[in-house]
Specification:
Low-confidence stretches: none
Shape: elongated
Number of domains: 3
Number of strands: 7
Helix content: 40-55%
Order of helices and strands: HHEEHHHHEEEHEEHHHHHHHHH
Number of helices: 16
Strand content: 5-15%
Mean pLDDT: 88
Length: about 500
């Protein structure tokens, strides 16, 4: 037998040879074969679980589902037709009383008899308006500092150039703001940004110029980012998430802390506690932290709330893969509680009644009990060799343990109406950073990743508050970046 255990294709002669060695040899052979069989079954179950997972029943992204037909969605049908709904005002081009240019199309001859109309006065005009862009070209503005000589003391005095005009020839703040808008708001890589600027404005921008502008924008937004971070640290409800980020072909981690009004991104080589500490938002946070259950978050002393969108996907997987009824019932219970909370909010209530809270909690605990009965812990084998680490469990048992251990965090949205049902806020903020990687690939350096994160966090904050992004980026290069609101939500 090899060091990896006996082969399954043992010949009859080999079996008889083991038999002749005595009872202990037979027991050792059967035990080893059973161990191998158990390992193969566990590996097979793991592979089958991976095959059964989709974006509907796990955290797998939709892009990994392939081109197969998609069935059931977690969303409920609204019963409305697609497109504009009755009563919707719509959005169309409006007639303008003030126009920038009038083009008249003369008629010089009668369309019936051919008589000349060149000297005939018009009796009426038909009007049509076209909304279009003017021809685009780069405008060169020359700044001249007037020099005058004092007739009294002969001292030369000079006019002051604007603060943002610092060298003999440079690109202006509006063009540099547009560079940042294309690279950080529209997520274009540097080559495509240069191509757009060349095609639209006829200016050939070097890659070095783009990166110098990004560095300048990054440095000037440092105080704004610090204010965003400080305000997030005092939020009542804070969303957090993390995802992999490629930096110089190595796996780094992008962390996000956000609310519905503010976004802060942080990139680090690590995913866990070390990175979150350096991010410097959660260590002193006293509010409610909403996250997906990553263990490092639970090491902080704030109140925790878990993302139930994750739970619904995991429960759907267990219901489909393992055919366990408690998982289907738990999905129904969580969505029922959410519907009741939403209904209570719409009716102007600030909390569910004590009777409702108690009833839902009893149902929740009852379903957990039912689930644990369907997934008992593995039997303890006497005199079995103890293995290091946590004993391997099935996906249903792992989820049940989490739902029981963190039941207060799972049902936080039920007790406090300020707590959302899911962590979609942070996941939406992370999603755009993943899109950046799909479009542009990995970051070439850690400095480039950090610069992008600060500028993108600023842009995300502006968009959440309905502030114009391009104008704000332009103002950054003038030296007075637009400040978002830092008022409590």
């Amino acid at each position: 037998m090899s060091k990896q255990g006996p082969k399954f294709n043992i010949s009859e002669a080999e079996i008889r040879a083991v038999y002749r060695q005595g009872e202990d040899a037979v027991v050792a052979l059967v035990t080893a074969l059973l161990d191998r069989l158990t390992a193969v079954e566990a590996r097979l179950e793991k592979l089958e679980n991976q095959q059964k997972k989709t974006s509907r029943n796990s955290s797998k992204p939709p892009s990994g589902d392939g081109f197969g037909k998609r069935t059931k969605s977690l969303r409920k049908k609204s019963g409305r037709r697609s497109g504009g709904q009755p009563g919707h005002s719509g959005s169309t081009l409006e007639w303008r009383e003030q126009v920038d240019q009038v083009v008249r199309h003369e008629v010089t001859a009668c369309q019936a008899c051919g008589e000349s109309l060149s000297t005939v006065s018009a009796v009426d005009y038909e009007h049509r308006q076209v909304h279009d862009l003017p021809p685009q070209r780069l405008q060169v503005i020359e700044h001249q500092s007037v020099v005058k000589c004092c007739p009294r003391c002969a001292e030369l005095s000079r006019g002051q150039f604007p603060a943002n005009v610092t060298v003999p020839v440079q690109y202006g703040s509006r063009l540099r703001g547009l560079m940042m808008y294309l690279m950080n708001a529209q997520l274009l890589p540097s080559d495509r940004t240069r191509e757009v600027l060349s095609e639209v404005f006829g200016c050939n921008i070097s890659e070095g110029t783009l990166y110098n502008a990004r560095l300048q924008c990054y440095e000037r937004l440092a105080p704004v980012e610090e204010q965003i971070k400080q305000r997030l640290g005092r939020a009542s409800v804070l969303h957090g998430d993390e995802t992999g980020l490629r930096v110089n072909y190595k796996l780094w981690w992008l962390h996000v802390a956000s609310t519905s009004a503010l976004t802060y991104y942080f990139v680090h080589q690590k995913r866990g506690r070390e990175a979150i500490d350096e991010m410097a938002v959660l260590p002193n946070f006293k509010g409610i932290s909403v996250h997906d259950g990553w263990a490092s978050y639970f090491t902080y002393s704030c109140t925790h709330a878990l993302c139930n969108a994750h739970h619904l996907r995991e429960l759907r997987f267990i219901a489909e893969r393992y055919k366990q009824s408690w998982a289907t019932a738990m999905m129904r219970l969580l969505t029922t509680i959410k519907a009741r909370v939403d209904s209570a909010k719409a009716e102007g209530h600030t909390a569910l009644s004590k009777q409702q809270l108690t009833g839902f909690k009893v149902l929740y605990q009852g379903l957990l009990t039912h689930g644990f009965k369907a997934n008992p812990p593995p039997p303890v084998v006497a005199n079995a060799l103890k293995k290091r680490g946590r004993k391997k469990q099935s996906p249903p048992k792992n989820l049940l343990d989490r739902l029981k251990r963190h039941d207060a965090a799972v049902l936080a949205f039920m007790r406090d109406f300020h707590v959302p049902f899911d962590n979609n806020q942070a996941e939406r903020d992370v999603r755009m950073m993943k899109l950046k990687q799909k479009i542009s690939g990995c970051f070439r350096s850690a400095d480039g990743a950090r610069q992008f994160c600060r500028i993108r966090g600023y842009i995300s904050t502006l968009r959440k508050q309905g502030l114009p992004v391009l104008d704000a980026l332009t103002s950054t290069f003038i030296g007075s970046p637009v400040l978002p609101s830092f008022q409590p939500e």
